[in-house]
Amino acid sequence: MHYAPCKTNMKPSVKLYDTTLRDGAQAEDVNFSVEDKIRIARKLDQFGVHYIEGGWPGSNPRDVEFFKEMRRVKLKKAKLTAFGATRRAKLKVSADPSMQALVSSGAPVATIFGKTWDLHVLKALKTTLDENLNMIEDSVLFLKEHLDEVVYDAEHFFDGYKANPDYALQTLLAAEGAGADCLVLCDTNGGTLPHEVEEIIAHVKKTIATPFGIHAHNDADVAVANSMTAIRMGAVQVHGTINGYGERCGNANLCSIIPTLKLKLGIDCVSGASLAKLRDLSRYVDELANLPHRKRQPYTGDSAFAHKGGVHVDAIGKSALTYEHIAPELVWNRRRILVSDMAGKSNILQKAAELGIPLKKDSPELAVILKKVKELENEGYEFEGAEGSLELLMLRAGHNYESVFTMFDRIDYRILTEKRKVDPHPVSEATVTVEVGGNVEHTAAWGNGPVNALDKALRTVLPKYFPGKGLENLRLLDYKVRVLTAAEGTASQVRVLIESGDGKNKWGTVGVSENVIEASWQALVDSIEYKLLRSKKK
What architecture (CATH level 2) is domain 15-270? Predict the structure, then answer.
């Protein structure tokens, strides 16, 4: 399949400036340790970004320690960058602690921000417009004497320009006159729209001769669009974070910008080999941030190439170009066919092929599977996050499938939950009776909840009849309950989704009932059967 990038006459060189470790770390719920930051810096360097903004040395102990530790880390491609502000008002630049911290950080590049918006100069800094220009000029001159490169971030540039265009341009000229290597136009409040970015940059280009860059925040959900607009207008440096982490609504998402630059505009900001590691990089940073991966994230999300509608799936089976703008493999993602009540025969056939189930258009069980899926989803089942249950459903429709549970003639269970005065937490006891191959087994187990107790009781029995199948490695990784018919109160129907794993693989299963224990039991039994099925196939 051929996916051609958009034709363009542009041949610019765009440098990737990553600020995940500084701007990204300011996001709510993100708290990187020093070791996390070092590991991410190594990963970014391996990936091929050009600048890694490590933090603000001197502002907090963690960043001080990070820059100290990074002296022993040899980056192969990226330039480590230290971030800071211009000198304080009415303070000699050489006596400013922030300036000294930047110089002594060990980073070869410094990025400093200065005030562009006269509102900030007068209200926040409480100084004069002329003094602010001196602060910018002095700071850039001082850093240029000590470091290899100085990037000037024109904070609130677009808002400042709209309020007072002459003064906003004067701040850029002050940094340019002092020798700044790049002037970065910042949409700090994230509210500027793409057409405004284009109009303002057109005026800026008539005034400055220094290369310029873009630093966009996402408060109006256009940070990536603003970044792409600036690049089209000639920006040579683009700032952003992995997965769009950042203050408030986040920063421009490099995981969207990088493939768009390379695949849509033909700009070689990274190699093809690096691009193929983009999804891995995205998930790596999420893991260290201890945040769930955003499944609907463009390019790298689990849903980025997921197809659900029958018309879509049928067309994708004929040509991927019909509903995919790039080949998912280019960013190391994969196509997923979802099966739901919106599914057609094409969904079932493609999903079966993906799962290795021999199913054809003329297979009699095809109609059975499709009917069953639609019936169950109408009852509240959800198979998009429960592919283990879906595979079992498809297999059970075949006449030659022998369930690993067919030797069970009866499965009974009972749950008791009690709160003891001596125990701060309630405990549950599950009693399970099963008949296996003519043998009646009766066992019980305690758990920290009814589902945990059921799981323990059932797996006390099963290893005896399924030795060497790895049931001892089976773990419940996630458990979600959703109320489907809230109007009925405590008698509402619920759906339980269980994610299980064995240290190597993960799978989801689902159960639905008016009784949360029964729904959990259904999902739990499917999870164990799926594990035994996988073991049987090896």
Answer: Alpha-Beta Barrel (3.20)
Per residue in 36-48, pLDDT (tens digit) is 999 999 999 999 9
The average pLDDT across 427-442 equals: 85
Q: Report the greatest alpha carbon distance in the chain.
A: 93
Pairwise CA distance, residues 134 & 25, whole Å: 31
The answer to whether the beta carbons of residues 339 and 382 sit under 8 Å apart is no
**DSSP for residue 95:** G
**Which residue ranges make up each domain of the chain?**
15-270, 418-465
Residues contacting 110, CB < 8 A, separation 6+: 81, 82, 83, 84, 102, 103, 143, 147, 149, 150, 151
The C-alpha torsion from 210 through 120 and 87 to 211, rounded to 10°, is -10
**Look-up: residue for tokens 């009784």?**
515
Contact 438, 462 (CB under 8 A): no
Surface-to-core class of residue 488, CB atoms within 10 Å of its CB (0-12 exposed, 13-18 middle, 19+ buried): exposed
* Gyration radius from the chain CA atoms: 29
Among residues 207, 130, 202, 190, which one has the least CA distance to residue 155?
190
Return d(Cα 527, Cα 458) in angstroms, integer: 12
Note the pLDDT tens digit of each residue in 147-172: 999 999 999 999 999 999 999 999 99
**How far apart are the two ends of the chain, measured CA to CA in Å?**
33
Q: Give Cβ neighbours of residue 276 (< 8 Å, ≥ 6 apart).
A: 329, 330, 331, 332
Q: Name the phi and psi angles at 476, rounded to 5.
A: -85, 115
Packed helices 364-379 and 345-355: angle between N→C axes, nearest 10 degrees? 100
